[in-house]
Specification:
Order of helices and strands: HHHHHHHEHEEHEHEHEE
Largest sheet: 7 strands, mixed
Number of helices: 11
Strand order of the largest sheet: 3-2-1-4-5-7-6
Shape: globular
Distance between the termini: 51 Å
Mean pLDDT: 90
Radius of gyration: 18 Å
Helix content: 40-55%
Strand content: 15-25%
Structural class: alpha/beta
Oligomer: single chain
Number of strands: 7
Low-confidence stretches: none
């Protein structure tokens, strides 16, 4: 009963915001015709990921040659304390933090000035990127579709301290509307973090587009790649060898554009 109530609430939330009508049509189509394909190849992808998975610290060492790896809590105690307090005070529950050090160290390694992410929620990944970007006055471009019907709009990115927000541009649309707007402002990026539409078809649409806008020697990170076979197939199609991180029973994939 609660699920039906939530669906009705979300539907009317979409109806009240015309700028999301295109995304509403896509969601209806996906839930009616593509529901079963969201997890296509999940078992095969999970086996593939487990076979290659390394720890976050090992991935950082392999990719950047950094040996003295510290947590963000040790590197930025004040900012991380602020972030944790903001998250605890937030009345809306959103996504977890994930592997933050990999984002920070890869931004440092690439000397990133322009970073793109899809999916924000509390803003943990945004925080990791911005803590690096601030050193070069770089810009983080974020695409984040509001959780319609959940009243979280004002809390997206809530863990970000005010002094970091001057380096942050947030686009509040679905990726198919946000990304063209972002690419009109900035065409290429040194690092891209994908953490939005996790469905098989959503990834198949996003990966080639994001790869196109990644600079040579740039890095693509994708979360939850064990959910379906899209990341595995993308790697196979382009003959790419990924770095795969295993943490909290999940997998993140990393590709360098050589």
């Amino acid at each position: 009963m609660k699920e039906i109530s939530d669906l009705i609430k979300t539907f009317f939330a979409y109806l009240s915001r015309p700028k999301f009508y295109r995304e509403l049509r896509r969601k209806i189509y996906k839930n009616v015709f593509l529901r079963e394909s969201s997890f296509k190849g999940k078992e095969e992808a999970a086996v593939w990921c487990k076979k290659m998975a390394v720890s976050q610290n090992q991935a950082i060492r392999n990719l950047t040659q950094t040996q003295n790896i510290q947590t963000l809590e040790n590197l930025f105690p004040a900012e991380m304390s602020y972030a944790k307090n903001a998250k605890d005070m937030c009345p809306v529950k959103m996504g977890g933090a994930g592997a933050l050090e990999i984002i920070y160290y890869l931004c440092e390694y690439t000397r990133a000035e322009f970073v793109l992410e899809t999916g924000v929620a509390y803003g943990w990944s945004s925080l990791a990127a911005l803590l690096s970007l601030k050193n070069r006055n770089g810009i983080l471009y974020s695409s984040d579709m509001p959780y319609l019907g959940k009243k979280n709009d004002t809390f997206v990115g809530c863990v970000l301290p005010q002094e970091l927000r001057k380096n942050w541009k947030l686009f509040r649309y679905a990726d198919k509307e946000s990304l063209p707007r972002i690419f009109r402002e900035q065409n290429t990026f040194q690092l891209i973090h994908y953490d939005s539409d996790k469905s098989y078809n959503g990834r198949l649409w996003a990966y080639p587009l994001l790869w196109k806008h990644l600079e040579k020697q740039g890095i693509l990170i994708s979360d939850d790649i064990g959910d379906n076979a899209a990341f595995m197939e993308f790697c196979t199609t382009l003959n790419l060898i990924p770095t795969i991180i295993g943490f909290d029973d999940k997998f993140a994939g990393i590709l360098v554009k050589n």
